Each structure stands twice: as structure tokens, then as C-alpha cells.
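Final paragraph of the annual report: two paired records, presented back to back.
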Amino acid sequence: MIVFDPTAVTKLVYEIELMVRNLQTTGWAGEDVERLMRTLDEVSAIEHALHYQLPNLDPLMQERYPGYQYDTSTAWWPNVEQWSYTGLNTMRGALDTVHEQLRIEQRAHEEQVLAALAAKTEAAVGNLDVTQAGNLINLQTVQEVRKLRQMMGALINAQTVAQAQQIHMHMVGERVQHDLMENSVAPIPTVAEGDAIHPVD
């Protein structure tokens, strides 16, 4: 004998309604991370900066910072100006990346998203609702990791260029000193220090 239980049927209908509602739009307005990533790419790529999005980064780095291979017969000042602009603009790009991500509006939007996720989690009814809330939290976590990766890339980029510039300037100084000594028309008095020979001051 089949027994009709209206309470069980009502509960089943309610669960189905929840499932249909949750299969439709979630109504959650998360961050537009793609827009933010494009903006961050743009602020990293300013003027003479060396940045990790450049397709020809390796040859450009070697061209801008030739180190000991620097040709001392070329004009000095335009090169120094380019080296300075490259280093400073790369640092500026890294600073702009941090500025863009930590703007007051950006933080306020992130707080709104987190509040919306917390509310959705607390108001979750049924397994599907709980699962969707968890998925949205996971999506937000992935987006935060992407932003963190972008900031780490900008930081490593800036540190690498700064270190390259420092090494490069030291090597250019060595090259200039070498060429001056080698091409001098008058003998230069030198003193030996270990394995190196330096001009006498």
C-alpha cells in the first residue's frame, strides 16, 4: 500500500525549486580580474621600462645593459640617460602595480565581495546552495592568487632590472678604465693589488 505524505512532497518540491534557482544565475558580482590584469600589464609597460610581458625581453636586456661589452667609443651621456630611464621606469611600473592593486576603491570592492560571500554562505539553504557558495569562495581565492602572482612578477622584475643596472654600471666602469689605460698616449703609473693592476691616484 502506497502512503501519500504531503510533507515529504512539499519538502521535495522545495528542494527542486532551490536546485532550479541555483542552476540559474547566482547573482554574485565578483571582481573583474581580467580588467585589473590588463590594467596592471599597462602600468608595468611604461616608457623605457624592461618588463616581463615584452616578447623580446632577453635581447632587449642585453642591448640595454651590455656590461663589459659596452663600446666606449660611443657617446657616453645618451647611454647613461637610457640606462637611468630604463631602471627608473621599471621601478615606477612596479610601484604603479602595487598602487593599482592597493587603491582605496579596490580594497573597498574586495571587502564588498567578501561580505557578499559571507552572506551567501550564511544564507545557504540546501546542498547545492552550500556548494555554490564554496565554489564562489574558491573562485575568489584563485583571483587573489592571480593578483598576488602579478605583484610578485612586478617585484621580481624590478629587482632584477635594478640588480642588472648595478652590475652593468660596475662593468662599464671597469671597461672604461681598461680602455683608458690601454689607449692612453702617455704611460699610466700603476700599482698591483692582488691579481689586479690599478692606476695610481
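The closing record of the year follows.
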Amino acid sequence: MNPVYAFVLLLVVAAIVGFYRLLAGPTRADRVIALDLLFAVAIVLSICAALASGSPAFLDVAVGLSLVGFVATIAWARLIDRQVTQGEDR
């Protein structure tokens, strides 16, 4: 078994855990962290695809995903901060 495929199997397990936390909650901060985890899994999966196929196009996808994930995490964190200061917790 190729080590890249074993690593992909571990990433699938991490994605399942991330989806569970995204759906189960219990707070919005938990959901944002789960979404950030899923972005990280997607980035590493695209890097694994680049290693397995030898195509550098997947690395461009990884860079794009990392930029979108960073901006999304900042936006969700600001939204949660505004809601906490206004008195909403969930």
C-alpha cells in the first residue's frame, strides 16, 4: 500500500469527525473550528492528489482552498464575536 493512500484513509477519518462536529455543535465556535478542520482536510487531500498523480495543478487548488479557508474563518469569527457582544450565545 502506498503511504499516500494510507494518509488519505486517515484524512477521511478526520473528515468524518469534522462533519460530526459541524452538525452536532453544540456552539457556533465548535462549528467554525469543524469547518476549519474540513478546509485543512481538503487542502491536504489536494496535496495528496498532486503527489499521487504527479500533476501540479492540484497544488494550485490547495493554495486557493487555503486562502478561502482563512478568509472564511476570519469572517465567521467576527460574526460570532459580534453576536456574543450583543448577548446571543448560540
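The chain is about 85% helix and 0% strand. This concludes the annual technical report; the extension proposal builds directly on these records.
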